[in-house]
Amino acid sequence: MRPVKRIEIVIDSLELHKLLRSLEQLGVSGYTVIRDAAGTGDRGARAGDQLSDVLKNSYVITACPEEQLKPLIDAIRPLLKRFGGICLVSDAQWIVH
Amino acid sequence: MRPVKRIEIVIDSLELHKLLRSLEQLGVSGYTVIRDAAGTGDRGARAGDQLSDVLKNSYVITACPEEQLKPLIDAIRPLLKRFGGICLVSDAQWIVH
Amino acid sequence: MRPVKRIEIVIDSLELHKLLRSLEQLGVSGYTVIRDAAGTGDRGARAGDQLSDVLKNSYVITACPEEQLKPLIDAIRPLLKRFGGICLVSDAQWIVH
Amino acid sequence: MNIDLILSNFLNPPILFFFLGMLAVFLRSDLEIPQPIAKFLSLYLLLAIGFKGGVGLYQGGVDHTVVVTIALAMLMASVVPLYSFFILRWRLSVADAAAIAATYGSISAVTFITATSLLVKLDIPYGGHMVAAMALMESPAIIIGVLFYRMFPTSDEGEGKSEFSWSELLRDAFFNGSVLLLMGSLLIGALTGESGKQALQPFTGDLFKGLLAFFLLDMGLVAARRLRDLQKTGIFLVSFAILIPLLNAMLALGLAYWVGLPKGDALLFVVLCASASYIAVPAAVRLAIPEANPSLYIPMSLAITFPFNIIVGLPLYLQAINYLWR
Amino acid sequence: MNIDLILSNFLNPPILFFFLGMLAVFLRSDLEIPQPIAKFLSLYLLLAIGFKGGVGLYQGGVDHTVVVTIALAMLMASVVPLYSFFILRWRLSVADAAAIAATYGSISAVTFITATSLLVKLDIPYGGHMVAAMALMESPAIIIGVLFYRMFPTSDEGEGKSEFSWSELLRDAFFNGSVLLLMGSLLIGALTGESGKQALQPFTGDLFKGLLAFFLLDMGLVAARRLRDLQKTGIFLVSFAILIPLLNAMLALGLAYWVGLPKGDALLFVVLCASASYIAVPAAVRLAIPEANPSLYIPMSLAITFPFNIIVGLPLYLQAINYLWR
Amino acid sequence: MNIDLILSNFLNPPILFFFLGMLAVFLRSDLEIPQPIAKFLSLYLLLAIGFKGGVGLYQGGVDHTVVVTIALAMLMASVVPLYSFFILRWRLSVADAAAIAATYGSISAVTFITATSLLVKLDIPYGGHMVAAMALMESPAIIIGVLFYRMFPTSDEGEGKSEFSWSELLRDAFFNGSVLLLMGSLLIGALTGESGKQALQPFTGDLFKGLLAFFLLDMGLVAARRLRDLQKTGIFLVSFAILIPLLNAMLALGLAYWVGLPKGDALLFVVLCASASYIAVPAAVRLAIPEANPSLYIPMSLAITFPFNIIVGLPLYLQAINYLWR
Ligand SMILES: Nc1ncnc2c1ncn2[C@@H]1O[C@H](COP(=O)(O)O)[C@@H](O)[C@H]1O
Ligand SMILES: Nc1ncnc2c1ncn2[C@@H]1O[C@H](COP(=O)(O)O)[C@@H](O)[C@H]1O
Ligand SMILES: Nc1ncnc2c1ncn2[C@@H]1O[C@H](COP(=O)(O)O)[C@@H](O)[C@H]1O
Ligand code: NA
Ligand code: NA
Ligand code: NA
Question: Does C touch E (3+ CB pairs < 8 Å)?
């Protein structure tokens, strides 16, 4: 078991690829994406627009060591500022296999 | 970074709208929903019934400040009692943008 | 509120049934599955192969009492070793209804 | 019993694909129909059968028999749940009895549709109003079942029951997706008549059998998967799931004979009464009778009554009709 | 106004299914079309109409009128967003004005397709090149809208604007799914001509009306759901969503009359100018004009302009054409 | 080489839509087919081709050539993985060699189906038993591949290999979705014959080309996306993915000529041997040979061999057959 930071992000689906790109650039060991997530927040309901994919969220989770946290957050924040979303950080134990 | 309570709920899809309504009434700043979640629990397998939507779960996550926790739980508990489900609360840091 | 261990697992969809079987054998009180999850990790991108279901992940979450944790991890580890994936453990409060 | 009849029902591609689906599950194959496709196909079938029925009404018009048939349909839809409930109470809790009674009082559109495809195969005509009858038979049983549940005392007299709104129930009963789509398409068919028929024929007509076959392939998969759940249900409910349809069929047969329905309408009427719901009712009952156990009423109608009706029932009922009506 | 026209538009099954969809939402029914099916249907419609258009070009060839029509189309697609923007600025922020201007400068394929189904019903011919015109009208408005947004100062002069790549925008404008599929199918139709038509006719031809009806059922659901969002938009935008299409239609009518387009082409041209986008534009604008509020431009085009055009607009425009062209 | 042949293959709408799909990816368009639709289409194609084959068997009956052809098919399906494995061992690990050998020993239904659509276009008949041959060619290679993997020592002699059940593998090989649906539909076609054909013709027959075109649009998208992964595979595997199909095709051509298969059957037989699996095999191999790297065997068959076969292979093989058979 190795202690890690568990970062979960909800972001506009249209912006997903940008988020993933910057995650990769920062060299996270990996991430998991759940594509379709509805939700509401300051920017109103985002039940997912059936026709265009506008207003649809994606849910991303990545586990990283403490020291990677800071740069990650700095990279994520502007994206969230621009298109809304949320980013939560919590502690977890990674079961290394 | 602001400390928040991270509340995740798994509930029968047919009841989802009731849960969301009470979340909104309690004035949470937002929530995220993942519509299709299978599962098993005391009430048996809920692999999602293909034909009717009975036996399908939805996964809801909302982050709220400590003080909102109590009223939220009081609102959620009866719903879970009636239709089953699960509610987990954990600590997280909200990256404010 | 009862303190529990919150175990989340990302595993190859083709292996999902094996994971769930061993969860049930270990007598967890329940679990929740989100079937379609993309991701990348040591084994490269797993965006989900459209035609065969190869390269698709599933996301599983289960909450269990502290004492169940150890046997669960021992059961999960070999599966992850063989087909990749990730397992995170964190602390949570279960709202008993 | 007439062997040709069994064969011509059995050699109907839709039925064979249903078997293929069940086989796939028994062989533990990974064959699977994506859920959105299954949903689409069931919507398509409702739309198509509704539209056909509407065009039929447009052509045939509304006469005396139409009114009588629909009256009978409503009658059966309200009587069946009554006696079903009291039979079930013999062994089950109020909640479960009420839920299952509602299930068997209501109807299965796919069984009805499979019956029409057999009629078409045998060139036996049927009236478009039978579709209206079907649509009207879906809801009453739900109401009655819930009434029973609320009239009789049950273990949970707390929130479970209090937290309930009639308006919501009525909406679920009368405006649920399948009823609305059926009725709407029926209306559209009746409004647009010939020109409408021409426009949609390739979609609602020509494709019908093919998409029905594809859907029954999925039904086979779903039904076979549910079979497992039956171990828990016990012999009482399993036999109920076969005997009650037969009883309902006999009553319906008598009524149909008595008022002298034409053969085709008679078969469809019998099939409607014999069939049990696994779409509209579960969704409504799950909310209105939360105490009832879904893993009882869903497998019963889906894994026993549905296959029984389309495989054994159809030829049996038709055989009886051929015998009486000659 | 000619009552037959209204009726023959109204009694078009697709239109009726659109109403059924809206009704379902008003009755708070749980009727729902799975999203992948909705996506598939919209792709199908683009493929089918594109292919038809291509075959039409193959048969009709490219002559003088074709060139003129397409030139006019491009013209209107660039002029409409211009004046729309300045009208909107009167009340809205630069970002919102630019986004809505782009929305109304671009087109709605489904409105176009519904118009063709009316023309077919009335045996009025139309040229395959109109499909090319439609495809070419989708993109310019997007570019112009974004140009406005970037030319005029806005509240957010920070990252929001800097973080932007023209190449990405141009790709979203000209190579987005719908434009590409339309153009591609058009080309394939023009390349394969008769033989291709024969091969695909049952799919792209015979099924067309049925699948259009099914898709409009979904559009009815979606549009009605969006109606709620309109409470916030206010009267100015609601009336804009009805009056601007009429204005655009009048201009288009004049141009079509002036160059003497044949009836069918004229109607389609008018409908294109009167329609507003709710697929290509929102997706592009969301990224290029992040400041703009999507819950303004999406409901306006989807919940007001689209229903207005297919229900009131179509017969109205055709009526006017019949009047002028005789 | 005969230019008409190339053209009439190239101007086949399905092929053109395949190109459109690839183009969309190269232009980085957001064109996308929802996954459930792709699954549905591939199921449909298997059902339709299986059913057609069955009806063909019903009409043609089972004679000497049928038996011979199927015997040859089984033979090639077992020989190809043999020599492929040893060629691959020259550069690859046992696991990867075994997985790729299985991939190329097995077949691609869509390649087969595209070939039939070309034959139909050129009015060249083919026997329904070829579908049976295809179904029977899917599985053997999987078994052989896994046998190799388990016979030869590999890096991971631990859990990886021990944790393995033959029963599971055999099920995956013989009862996987595609094999079962093919075989089942074949049987249903053979059982229901003419009447069944009539009933399903609009679905399994008329729509076939259209839905194939739509599916190939998706295949184009998927194949082009996979092209990226090839950078890692290296020149050896890339050339393998083109040369081995040609080698297999030559052998098949020889056998077909030797036993004197009719033209149509010959082409289909050649195409089957030249094609590689990207559905059944990956799913089975992923579990049975976990050490093998999926981003080798999937892109090879999907992004190189499949396009090569339907674009270059088809006319080439047919050309050779026309040359030899005259
Ligand atoms: N408090 C919250 N808890 C969970 N998810 C949230 C919360 N606030 C916002 N979200 C998610 O983030 C998306 C964008 O939020 P916003 O930018 O505030 O509109 C919403 O659609 C939700 O899916
Ligand atoms: N221990 C658990 N961990 C994760 N999810 C659970 C757990 N128990 C129940 N669930 C979820 O809650 C749903 C309803 O649970 P129940 O009411 O116990 O049947 C199940 O279908 C699961 O999706
Ligand atoms: N650091 C991580 N954070 C979140 N998910 C991960 C992480 N690493 C791997 N995964 C998930 O686990 C799957 C398999 O990982 P791997 O075995 O490392 O290829 C990936 O496709 C991801 O979905
Ligand atoms: Na009944
Ligand atoms: Na316009
Ligand atoms: Na092969």
Answer: no
Cα–Cα distance between F89 and F79 in angstroms, integer? 16
CA distance C57 to C39: 7
Is D38 within 8 Å of B51 when comparing Cβ atoms?
Answer: yes
Could you tell me which of F251, F199, A49, D318 has the C-alpha nearest to residue E280?
A: A49
pLDDT per residue as tens digits for the range F70-122: 999 999 999 999 999 999 999 999 999 999 999 999 999 999 999 999 999 99
Q: Which long-range contacts (CB under 8 A, 24 or more apart) does F118-124 make?
A: F118/F8, F118/F9, F118/F12, F118/F314, F118/F318, F119/F264, F119/F267, F119/F268, F121/E195, F121/E199, F121/F8, F121/F12, F122/F8, F124/F263, F124/F264, F124/F267
Question: Would an 8 Å CB–CB cutoff place E13 in contact with chain D?
Answer: yes
Chain centroid to CA D191: 26
Contact assessment for residue F79 and residue F250, using Cβ atoms and an 8 Å cutoff: no
pLDDT confidence bin for C58, thresholds 50/70/90: very high
pLDDT at D160: 56
Is any Cβ of chain B less than 8 angstroms from the Cβ of D177? no
> What secondary structure letter does DSSP report for F114?
H
**Pairwise CA distance, residues A45 & A64, whole Å:** 31
Q: What gap in Å lies between CA E194 and CA E199, rounded to an integer? A: 9
Return the partners of chain D (3 or more C-beta pairs < 8 Å): B, E, F
Cα distance between residue E74 and residue B2, in whole Å: 52
Q: Which amino acid is at E291?
A: E
The single-letter code of the amino acid at D283 is: A
Distance CA F271, CA F313 (A): 8
pLDDT tens-digit map of D120-159 = 999 999 999 999 999 999 999 999 999 999 988 777 666 5
Spatial separation of the C-alpha atoms in residues C39 and E298, rounded to whole Å: 31
Is A61 touching ligand 3 by the criterion CB < 6 Å? Answer: yes
Quick one: pLDDT band at residue F161, thresholds 50, 70, 90?
Answer: low
Q: Is A34 in the pocket of ligand 1 (CB under 6 A)?
A: no
- Contact: A12, E159; criterion CB under 8 Å: no
Ligand closest to C80 (CA) is 3
Between A81 and B73, whose confidence is greater? B73
Q: How far is the CA of A62 from the centre of ligand 3 (A)?
A: 8
pLDDT per position as a tens digit, C1-49: 899 999 999 998 888 988 999 999 998 999 999 988 988 887 777 766 5
Ligand nearest to the CA of E73: 5
pLDDT over 80 (residue D273): yes
What single-letter amino acid sits at B47? A
User: What's the gap in Å between the CA of E286 and the closest CA on chain A?
Assistant: 7
How far is E265 from A74, CA to CA, in rounded Å? 55
What distance in Å separates the CA atoms of residue F82 and residue E259, rounded to the nearest whole number? 71
Judged by CB atoms closer than 8 Å, whether chains meet at C42 and A24 is answered as: no
**This prediction's pTM:** 0.94
Q: Which chain A residues have any C-beta within 8 angstroms of a chain C C-beta? A: 1, 4, 6, 24, 29-35, 63, 90-95, 97
B96: enclosing H helix or E strand: none
In contact, E53 and E131? CB cutoff 8 Å:
yes
* pLDDT tens-place string over residues E271-317: 999 999 988 888 888 888 888 888 889 899 999 999 999 999 999 99
Identify the closest residue of chain A to E218 by CA–CA distance: A50
Cα F115-F118-F121 angle, rounded to 5 deg: 155
C-beta atoms of D202 and E211 within 8 A: no
Q: Which phi-psi region, left, alpha or beta, contains residue E146 (left: φ > 0; alpha: ψ -120 to 50)?
A: alpha
Please, what is the end-to-end C-alpha distance for chain A in angstroms? 9
Q: Which helix (H) or strand (E) holds B44?
A: strand B44-45
The yes/no answer to whether this complex scores an ipTM above 0.90 is yes
